[in-house]
Design goal:
This protein is an alpha+beta fold and about 160 residues long. It is built from 3 helices and 9 strands; from the N terminus they run αββββαβαββββ.
């Protein structure tokens, strides 16, 4: 019986040629940029902070979103919505563009945000924007917290 040697070099050449197109194949993201935007009562941007969020199984958990907002927000801000952008946008553009943009999805607070697969080349432009607005009370008043002075013991040092 004869031994046949298979020529597999063409497979390696094909893989090398195809590697130029790897950025166009869809893949799941494991990290995504997250911007926390704080807007005052006049719809003006007053604070921006950036962090990264983990994506597990193509989903950003509502707990991760709440923690990112809680750690990066200003006082008296509450999470109004989470915006998933699949286009490159600056925080200023988000405030004016987030309604009616085809590549934007709006999620209400407390929901998981599905990221889904996207081409590898676009992973760097995918971003989640957490929009926080100043909370206003129905009667126009603000909550005031009163605290009392806490007495502390002083340690006496002996000479």
């Amino acid at each position: 019986m004869e031994d046949f040697d298979l020529d597999v070099e063409w497979v390696n050449e094909l893989a090398e040629c195809e590697s130029a197109y790897d950025d166009f194949y869809e893949d799941t993201q494991c990290m995504i940029d997250c911007y926390v935007l704080a807007v005052d009562s006049h719809d003006e941007l007053v604070h921006v902070s950036k962090t990264k969020l983990d994506v597990h199984g193509g989903v950003i958990s509502s707990d991760a979103i709440a923690a990112a907002f809680r750690n990066n927000r200003l006082p008296r801000q509450h999470l109004e919505e989470a915006l998933l952008f699949r286009v490159s946008a600056s925080p200023d553009e988000v405030l004016t563009l987030h309604i009616g943009v085809d590549n934007t999805t709006i999620y209400s607070p407390g929901c998981d945000v599905p990221v889904g697969p996207s081409p590898k080349g676009l992973h760097r432009v995918n971003a989640v924007f957490l929009l926080g607005r100043e909370r206003e009370r129905a009667d126009g008043t603000r909550r005031i917290r009163l605290t009392t002075a806490r007495k502390t013991r002083r340690k006496h040092h002996r000479n």
